[in-house]
Amino acid sequence: MTHLRDIIIGLADAQVDFVIAGGVACVLQGVERFTLDLDIAVNLTPKNLSRFLSVMKRQGLVPRVPVQPESLIDPEVRKMMIEEKNALVFTFIDLNDPRRHVDLFLRDDLSFDRLNAKVDKVSLDGREVKVTSVEKLLQIKQSIDPLRDKDILDIIALKRLLKDG
Question: Do 79 and 57 contact (CB within 8 A), yes or no?
Answer without folding.
Answer: no
